[in-house]
């Protein structure tokens, strides 16, 4: 639900990082926060538990500059990945303009990726949102770990029709983080035109 | 995609007028208008030192969480929220079911006055937003400023920003 203000010449869009718990959603946003120059970013807000697990969301506003006279800003959110926080996840999807699905490449997390993607579709449906109409980018994270599922296998279950762009990532090192972000930003802005 | 909010010049000034009247009529510190997705629409009053992006996001989250609490006890929505601090207080209410009005105030005024004046401001803003949302439904009325040129300019800007 992008907010376009023609009077103050501003565009605000909302991008949500979705995926299973401990998959690297917060790590993505934190990496963006540490690397972006101060003029382009706002404060990073984390509503987390004492053990640093996301409780409600993380939030980071990112300014990408002025495009055709419009000050353009993205609000990046993560959802809590843990299964029992679905009420929070659903609330964060409200007004979403684009989604990054952060999948955990580890073999033992394979099923959780599928469950999380199904859960995302269910939550979108509850807002009458159709995944076919919302920009989505997949990120296969943790590619540096030894016991990982192959990209082909992940694609087969999470992106069987190859409809969505995907990126391999090692979010802890920043690999693939900005590539993913750039792609989703482009797709969201394209939807506005 | 979900329905967006497009605010055009005349609506924006009508909104600003209503907010300024509320600010003056209540002697509040600041008034902020936020969409339910957490984006700041506009503000008036003294917002010095206030991180308005964070404020907007957290207000929307607060409202969303409280709405869920309402539904758990069989209410469809809590239409107003009040947070009392030692010096600063916050009064939050919903407009046209889509927009959040947040009033920050201190000891220079009181909750009763805020409540009364906010009620009439909400009625006025509701009319303005109803008109804005019905315009959104008639997409043909949109100015065609965000066209293919906008997309290519956006891509260039993103390339520059991310450096690849």
Automatic annotation (TrEMBL), chain A:
Gene3D superfamilies: P-loop containing nucleotide triphosphate hydrolases (3.40.50.300). One of its GO terms (molecular function) is GTP binding. It holds the Pfam family Arf. PANTHER family: ATP/GTP-BINDING PROTEIN-RELATED, GLIDING MOTILITY PROTEIN MGLA. Coiled coil: none annotated. It comes from candidate division TA06 bacterium DG_78. This is Gliding-motility protein MglA. Keywords: GTP-binding, Nucleotide-binding.
From TrEMBL, chain B:
One of its GO terms (molecular function) is molecular adaptor activity. Pfam families: Robl_LC7. SMART domains: Robl_LC7. One of its GO terms (biological process) is positive regulation of TOR signaling. Residues 15-105 form the Roadblock/LAMTOR2 domain. Gene3D superfamilies: Dynein light chain 2a, cytoplasmic. This is Roadblock/LAMTOR2 domain-containing protein.
């Amino acid at each position: 639900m992008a907010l376009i203000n023609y009077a103050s010449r501003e565009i605000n869009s909302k991008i949500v990082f979705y995926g299973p718990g401990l998959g690297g959603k917060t790590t993505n946003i934190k990496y963006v926060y540490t690397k972006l120059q101060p003029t382009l970013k706002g404060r990073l807000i984390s509503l987390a538990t004492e053990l640093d697990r996301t409780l409600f969301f993380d939030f980071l506003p990112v300014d990408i500059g002025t495009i055709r006279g419009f000050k353009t800003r993205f609000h990046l959110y993560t959802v809590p990945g843990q299964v029992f926080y679905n009420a929070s996840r659903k609330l964060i999807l409200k007004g979403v303009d684009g989604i990054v699905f952060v999948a955990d490449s580890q073999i033992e997390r394979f099923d959780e990726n599928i469950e999380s993607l199904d859960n995302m579709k269910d939550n979108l449906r509850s807002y009458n949102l159709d995944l076919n109409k919302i920009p989505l980018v997949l990120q296969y994270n943790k590619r540096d770990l030894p016991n990982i599922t192959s990209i082909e296998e992940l694609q087969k279950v999470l992106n069987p029709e190859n409809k969505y762009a995907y990126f391999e990532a090692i979010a802890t090192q920043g690999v693939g983080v900005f590539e993913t972000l750039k792609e989703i930003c482009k797709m969201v802005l394209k939807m506005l035109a | 995609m979900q329905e967006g909010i497009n605010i055009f010049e005349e609506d924006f000034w009508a909104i600003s007028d209503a907010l300024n009247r509320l600010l003056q009529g209540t002697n509040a510190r600041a008034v902020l208008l936020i969409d339910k997705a957490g984006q700041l629409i506009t503000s008036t009053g003294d917002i010095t030192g206030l991180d308005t992006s964070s404020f907007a996001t957290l207000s929307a989250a607060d409202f969303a969480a409280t709405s869920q609490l309402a539904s758990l006890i069989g209410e469809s929505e809590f239409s107003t929220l009040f947070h009392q601090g030692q010096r600063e207080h916050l009064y939050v209410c919903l407009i046209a079911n889509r927009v959040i009005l947040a009033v920050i105030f201190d000891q220079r005024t009181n909750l009763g006055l805020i409540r009364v004046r906010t009620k009439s401001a909400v009625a006025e803003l509701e009319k303005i937003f109803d008109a804005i949302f019905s315009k959104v439904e008639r997409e043909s009325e949109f100015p065609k400023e965000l066209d293919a040129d906008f997309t290519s300019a956006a891509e260039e800007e993103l390339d520059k920003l991310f450096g690849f």
